[in-house]
Design a protein that fits this description.
By secondary structure, this protein is mainly beta. The protein is 8% helix and 23% strand. The longest helix is centred in the middle third of the chain and has 11 residues.
Amino acid sequence: MSFTGLVKALFLPALAGAALAAPLLGATPASAATCQADPYNGVCVATTSYTVNTKVAVQRTPKTGNVSRYVAAGSAVAVLCKVTNGGTADGLTSTTWDAIVGGGWVYNAYVNVSPYTRVCGTAGPAVTYSATAYPWQAVDTFVSDGHGYYQGECVSFAAWAVRTDGRAHTKSPDFMMNDYQWTGAYVDATPHAGDVAQWDAGRNGAGSSGHVAYVTAVNADGSVTVNEFNWGNFHRFNVRTFAPNTPSRYLHF
């Protein structure tokens, strides 16, 4: 980051997050992959493509009587996960249904699905996140954290939180430059605990390099609580709760 950038970081009301590489001036976030979420717990999951062997009704819930659309015989569907306690259909005894990308459920008897398909709602690893464990709680200079960021910056804290929170992640948060350039992750349609909230430059108080924060909770009223560093107080910890549309987007690693 240039000297000018460092001066801005020191004096902007919402302090810019600094990465060790020089910012790409005028760059805009590239398209990131969309998170394919488990319909039961919102966890981003890997999908598997399967072929339906007959025309299949896609139901809104895992039972008959609530058709949303149809899939033609021989078409591929991307399966997210399955449940084994749905309704029966067409005189068959199976109660297994598969959740598919695009929303809805198809009766498992008509899909050539592996018996090892993930069960919807499967819990991830135990969460081990603790903000007080961040090793650079009060750093007043610019020192590398060894992961591509300056200690005490919002990017350093958010990346550290993702690395150490114990959740299942498939992407690395390291060495991704400034806040607004964090594009190496999935984009969540809705926020979940463990996501990273991302602000583009200038959005809702963010500085010229944008901002990132670690989502710790999505509350009953829909508001989002984050932990962050470098928001309004140089290289210091902060907690905020805000409306879900306050950041530009939510990233899932």
